[in-house]
Design goal:
Layout (H helix, E strand, L loop, with lengths): L6 H15 L3 H42 L5 H14 L9 E4 L4 E3 L22 H10 L3 E9 L2 E15 L4 E8 H13 L2 H31 L9 H17 L4 E9 L2 H8 L1 H18 L5 E6 L2 E8 L2 H17 L10 E7 L6 H17 L5 E3 L1
Parallel strand pairs: 9-10
Antiparallel strand pairs: 1-2, 1-5, 3-4, 4-5, 6-8, 6-9, 7-8
Helix pairs in contact: 1-2, 1-6, 2-3, 2-5, 2-6, 8-9, 9-10
Length: 381
C-alpha cells in the first residue's frame, strides 16, 4: 500500500513554512492548531485505511475458502491469527466482534473473547459495541468512546475507532487511535521554540505517513508470509503463479519446474518430541529452502509439513540437482532431538500449454508416489 501526503496537507504545510519564515509567532501557533486538527483527522483516516486493509486480508482468506484450497474453519482461523499478530504504533491493534456484540478476537484482552458486550457502557454511558454494529451495518464509520490503553487497563481513555463490516462472515472489524496521545504531542510542540516546532511538525508528518506505510506493509507481509518458516504462503503462490507461467512461455531457454516436498514421518516427530521440536524442524527446513534456492525461485509453505518450490531451470538435471540438494541438506542437518529428517519430493516439468493447476497436481502426484515407494526419494515423471 502506498501512503502519501494529500494535497490539502501539502497546502497547509506550505502555509506553515511561509508563516514561520515571516517570524510571526502567533500565526505559527494558529497554523500549528490547524495542522494539529488535520494531523488528528489524518490519524482517523489511517484507522479507516488500516481497517479496510484488514478487511481485505480477511477477504483473501475467504476467497481461498471459496476456491476449496482451505476449509471454512481454517479461513477464519488464519484471518484471526493474522490480525491478532498485527501491530502498529505503540498502542495500535485490531479487534473483531460479530453483529450480536460477541467478541470474536481481541489481542490484548483475550478474556473478552466469547463475551457479549452489546450492552456494555463506558463511564459516559456510551454503548460502543452497539454503535460499532450500527456504523458497520451502515457502511462503516467512526465511533468515539472511552476505552483503556494496553498499559493502563484501569484508566479508560478517549478513543476514536473506525469499524467496517465483513458481510460474508458478519464480522465487525475495527481499529482506532487514543486522542490523548495526539493532544499531548500537539501541546509539546506548542511549548517548543519556533524552529523546534517546525522541525517537530515536519518530523511528525513524516513519521505519521511512514508509520502508516510500514503498518500496511507489515499487514501485507502477514498475508503473504508464513510466520513460522518465513517462506511465502499458499495465497502468495496463487497470486504469482501466472508470472512463472509467462516467464516459461517467454524464455525458451528455461522451463518451469515444480518441486513438491513433504517431511517424512513428521507426525511422529510431533508425537515423540512435541510440537516445539516439530516447529523447529519446520523452521530449519524453511531455512534450507531459502538458502539453497535462487532469489528468483519461489519457496512456499503449502500447508503443514508440505512445501512447494517453483524454479525456472535450463534442464531436467538442474531441477533434479536442486531437489537432491534440498533432500541432502535436510538429512545432513542437526536437529535438537538428534533424529534424522528426510524429505520426499515430486518434481514436474510444465508441458506446452499446460495450466499451472495441472502442473501442480502432477508434482503432487509424483510426491505421492515417492511416499508410497518408501519415502526419502525424488520422483520425476
Amino acid at each position: 500500500m502506498k501512503i502519501s501526503l494529500s494535497s490539502d496537507i501539502g497546502k497547509h504545510l506550505s502555509l506553515m513554512v511561509l508563516i514561520s519564515l515571516l517570524g510571526m509567532v502567533v500565526l505559527l501557533y494558529v497554523v500549528f492548531d490547524i495542522f494539529g486538527n488535520i494531523y488528528i483527522e489524518e490519524k482517523r483516516n489511517d484507522s479507516l485505511k488500516l481497517t479496510n486493509t484488514a478487511v481485505s486480508i480477511v477477504d483473501s482468506f475467504h476467497r481461498l475458502e471459496q476456491k476449496g484450497e482451505i476449509s471454512a474453519k481454517e479461513a477464519r482461523l488464519y484471518s484471526i491469527n493474522t490480525l491478532r499478530s498485527s501491530r502498529y504504533s505503540d498502542s495500535g491493534y485490531f479487534w473483531i466482534n460479530d453483529l450480536q456484540g460477541n467478541i470474536v478476537m481481541h489481542p490484548l484482552m483475550p478474556a473478552l473473547e466469547g463475551q457479549n458486550l452489546i450492552d456494555y457502557r463506558d463511564v459516559n454511558g456510551i454503548k460502543p459495541f452497539d454503535r460499532f454494529v450500527s456504523e458497520a451495518i451502515n457502511g462503516g464509520g467512526w465511533v468515539e468512546y472511552l476505552w483503556p490503553k494496553p498499559d493502563q487497563p484501569d484508566s479508560p481513555t478517549h478513543k476514536v475507532s473506525y469499524v467496517s463490516l465483513y458481510e460474508p462472515w458478519q464480522w465487525v472489524i475495527g481499529t482506532g487511535v487514543y486522542m490523548d496521545e495526539e493532544a499531548a504531542a500537539k501541546n509539546q510542540l506548542v511549548l517548543s521554540s519556533t524552529h523546534i516546532v517546525i522541525i517537530v511538525l515536519l518530523s511528525l508528518i513524516g513519521f505519521s505517513f511512514f508509520s502508516a506505510r510500514q503498518s500496511a506493509r507489515g499487514i501485507a507481509n502477514f498475508a503473504i508470509r508464513d510466520p513460522l518458516t518465513q517462506l511465502y504462503s499458499r495465497r502468495y503462490l496463487n497470486e504469482t503463479e501466472d508470472r512463472f507461467v509467462r516467464e516459461d512461455l517467454r524464455n525458451k531457454n528455461n522451463h518451469l519446474y515444480i518441486l513438491f516436498l513433504d517431511i517424512d514421518h513428521f507426525k511422529s516427530v510431533n508425537d515423540t518430541y512435541g510440537h516445539l521440536e516439530g516447529d523447529q524442524v519446520l523452521k530449519i527446513v524453511g531455512s534450507i529452502l531459502r538458502q539453497s534456492t535462487r532469489p528468483q525461485d519461489l519457496c512456499v509453505r503449502y500447508g503443514g509439513e508440505e512445501f512447494v518450490v517453483l524454479t525456472l531451470a535450463k534442464s531436467d538435471e538442474d531441477a533434479l540437482h536442486l531437489a537432491e540438494r534440498l533432500r541432502y541438506k535436510t538429512f545432513s542437518s542437526d536437529f535438537e532431538s538428534g533424529t534424522k529428517i528426510t524429505l520426499s519430493c515430486g518434481v514436474a516439468k510444465r508441458d506446452k500449454d499446460e495450466s499451472f493447476a495441472n502442473l501442480l497436481q502432477r508434482a503432487d502426484a509424483n510426491l505421492y508416489l515417492a511416499k508410497k515407494n518408501g519415502r526419502d526419494q525424488i520422483i520425476f515423471k
